[in-house]
Amino acid sequence: MNHRKITDSAQKTVRKLKEEYLALNEEQKNTETRLSETKIQLGKLFSRLAVVNIESNLGAFEEAERSMKERQRNLVQMKNRLASVEERIKEALEKSSLKNVALEEIGAQVEHAIVSSTEITVWRKALADNELARNSYEEIGKEAEHKLTEFRNNKYFGYLLEAGYGSSDYRAGPIKKVAHRLAAMACDFPRNVKSYELLIALQKASAERYSNFSTYMASLESAAQKTTQKMREKLGYYEVEDEAIQAEKTLNALKAQASSILSELKSASNNNDSAYKSVIKNIETNLLNMTPGELTALAESTECAKDDALILQIGTLIEDVEVLKKNYVNQKEQSDKAKRVYELAHDAEKRIARAVRTSSDYSYRDFDVGALVTGYALGTITNNDITRTLDRAERYDPLPSYSSSSSSSSSSSSSDSGGFGGSSGGGFTSSSSIGGGGFSTSDSF
Asked: Lower Cβ count inside 10 Å, N or C end of the chain?
């Protein structure tokens, strides 16, 4: 057999061992998954059993019983704290309301005191004028921009504007000047450019006028604010405002405190508070440390039927867990062993591939390649054994080769033994007769 058959046989053996390993590994993973799921299910049953014992057999767990009593005391304290906070909220709400009313009253007094002052009167009158000025500025600006755009969009007028025609900086060659003059005639540039410049001046003047008026308005507003501030200080507005703000902050803090207590009480009513969870955990730990017999005795000590059913389910799952644990250990050992065998077989495959001769001059006597690979994987065959087996099976059997010298020799032999023109007869000659074995040109039949 050739080298290809040997390597293919080695690969086939390795694939088979790999499949065996993967099958065992998959079985191990499935068992591990079932074990994990069973433990989770068992944990849930113990949690349910713990709840049942809290309800009907708490006295069997001293530490848990103390914790539940402490939890109950804390719940009573929380309810009392909530009642106290709610009472304080009522007081804070009333105080905040009074402060806001007082602030509004002082605000009305301030307004009444400043309404006739010169600064306030002028500023409030100017507010209406400011609105008119702003509208006028916006209207003029919009109208001017519209007309300016029309000028710029005119083909000839826009062309002349870009060239600077008619300005002190205007420069152009003779031909350009002729073109510019023709364009100016076409769009009546001298008359229209005056309108264009007038619109720009109007737009600028409007913006400047509105800017000045805005500055004037700012000064009036500042004077009015100072007058208002002085009157507020005089009537104690800011002190009452600070008190109103503080009252609002106090009220909000009390509301947040009440909300937090309510949230804790709600969790406790749903048995979702940390204290209850801690008791459950304590009882679960005790239950997990009990033997099946102790669990059965615990269930029999109560009149409740729930724990009896749970104990039966727990007992079944405990047995299942033990079986799955043993199966997992055995399957892991088998899987690990199969993995090592596969890896060593793969190593043997690579060693054989490196050692076998691929030249067509070599062939091999038949031998069991699969047994060689498997034996190496199982440790019964060494690397030297692989080398010796290949060496013993190896055969050197080169194919015959043909060269130019052998062809010449062959031709000479043919010539000597009666080829065309040979000396021993049988070819064309000039004097031989038929009896000499050839054809003669002078012979006749």
From this structure: C
